[in-house]
Amino acid sequence: MKSHFLYSSATCGFKRTGKPDLALIYSPVPCVYAGVFTTNQVRAACVDENRILLKKKQKIRAIVVNSGNANACTGKRGINAVRKTREITARILKIKSSEVLVASTGVIGVHLDMEKMEKGIVAAVPKLNVRNLKNAAKAILTTDRYLKTIKKQTKDFSIVGFTKGAGMIHPNMATMLCYFMTDINASQLMLQSALKSAVENSFNLISVDGDMSTNDMVILLSNCHGKKKITKKNDPLFSNFKKILNEQCLKLAKEIVADGEGANKVITVYVNGAKSQKDANEIARSIASSNLFKCAIFGSDPNWGRAAARIGATSVLVNQNRIEISINKTLVFKNGTPVEFNKNKLNKEIKQSKEVKLTVNLKLGKALGLAFGCDLSFDYVKLNSAYFS
Amino acid sequence: MKSHFLYSSATCGFKRTGKPDLALIYSPVPCVYAGVFTTNQVRAACVDENRILLKKKQKIRAIVVNSGNANACTGKRGINAVRKTREITARILKIKSSEVLVASTGVIGVHLDMEKMEKGIVAAVPKLNVRNLKNAAKAILTTDRYLKTIKKQTKDFSIVGFTKGAGMIHPNMATMLCYFMTDINASQLMLQSALKSAVENSFNLISVDGDMSTNDMVILLSNCHGKKKITKKNDPLFSNFKKILNEQCLKLAKEIVADGEGANKVITVYVNGAKSQKDANEIARSIASSNLFKCAIFGSDPNWGRAAARIGATSVLVNQNRIEISINKTLVFKNGTPVEFNKNKLNKEIKQSKEVKLTVNLKLGKALGLAFGCDLSFDYVKLNSAYFS
Description:
The structure is a homodimer. By secondary structure, the first copy, chain A, is an alpha+beta fold. The first copy, chain A, has 11 helices and 14 strands.
């Protein structure tokens, strides 16, 4: 990256495990800021506060993210906690508090301990370093099993990013916590529209458990150090940026699903022959979030009937006598009737792979859609029942 | 019951367990028939065929129900199987084939073996008996752990009924398989409206796993042997019938949830202070079908934050700063802020009980709603992953 974003992490003690639970992102220069947020009406205070800064098109220099406590459903005290976090960070970094974004993930309905927060920020600032991205990415994880970062360098711009996922993943409009840092030299409006579209075609297609979070957000910061200033939407450089941003969002979204709570297999659902992309995506996501189909895949059972039932349960008008379903490359349902296939062979195929592809053709139009889910395993139940709020 | 409905069961071999899998209900006299069916667009042939008979207001004398095979997603051959089942039954019972209803439950996408079906019907007919209701109720079960029957006798009328549930339970409009036999002397229109309303306030409030079935149906037959012919909707006798039908539907609906696949605890969600009953029911059901909240209850964890997140994720407009949440009798969230409570005490309380009550007050209006769900346990995953389609 042509210029420096600096990263750091600290341990405040929000997590019971004693693992790092505070990440800090810092830019020496003010950045253009784009963001998309959860549409959940029950929202964390940080979501609302960051939205206000977005509306004002504020330039941003720092993001503070804590894990282990979502600071959601915490009322006015929750809002004050966000403001206080911004003030502490601004004071220590010698920037304006309106240049600081805050994000939280973890248990809902517990007040943030601001002493712990201050201690964490104080500890994090001196460690700010360009090489600490992985430490920051690690500090925002909750039940995630592994790091999810991306890094892309072209001759014109660079993007780095990291995200967390694991549970309460069924985003709408935005999702989870995800941060992109870039140097592309484009306006806030252009970056905002690029981010929105990339999120729509990536994070908004995934589901781990059908539960929409209170704290989802995807943030993109650009210090605009790119040599060429982009002024037109159809500039080939910007088109390339959008393409790459899309790809990187999709890559991280798929990683979130692969690392979904208790997940062993990614379920990719392709829907084609729909009247609109919206219809196709709705059906794809309905299948990808079916508990029954997810359990079948956990058992490597090619139980396509459970997927068929979900197709009919959406708001999309379908004709069951036209539907075609394939699992991986095996056709299992055609024109409303089952197709004979070797169940034992397909069972073995699913068992041996980390990904299952289900393809649905509605034969009603030309639009395509897709969604990503994961299997539902004993470990999902274990993680979410053993977890004491 | 003043007059006889006769019941029987048989073993066709649809179930791999070798348990009874065919139920037969028979009335010596033609009965008024009311029914509500799944709104899933991917439907079993029997649903469509029964609907045609309902539209024609046909009188019914027999219902054949098989378990172990849903005869859904089976195309024209599936429709022919239903018609053939009706013909066989009509021939043996010496009634008209238009007097026979058919229902199926079990695996989707497998053709019915009509030789087995005929063998089963032939075996069932000679055993028709007024005392065989429990055998019939047993034969329609799949992963259910126990029988679900009701019996109610007033001086004016009687109702008996039975149902099955367990998995793929998230009904819309109608649900699962459920049969009521009565002698109330009322018109088809009156009975249809009574049934529809009872179903709306019972079966349509429950969810085991969020998966809407292809085969749901609730059927009510009346031989109209009741002494008094009811002609007016506001006849107190009919009002009493509707009240009792409602109660019995609710009782069976709750039993389905209690016996949901892998279920240990019933989750009852009350929503009040909504602008409409529809809004209240939508929120209640959204909470009752949250995988995360269901897992928390499996672990006896009073994790109300997961319920709060679901309130905001519905299409109902809410104000998070007004919401109040209680678990059993403990207030945990008020005016958008958490209320201090003894978590260990509530954890113990949940652990020791078979039912958890979550009450939400939206403080937006006066409408009430409710929903019933169950916890999500290891056994749900086990049942639905080990099950080989």
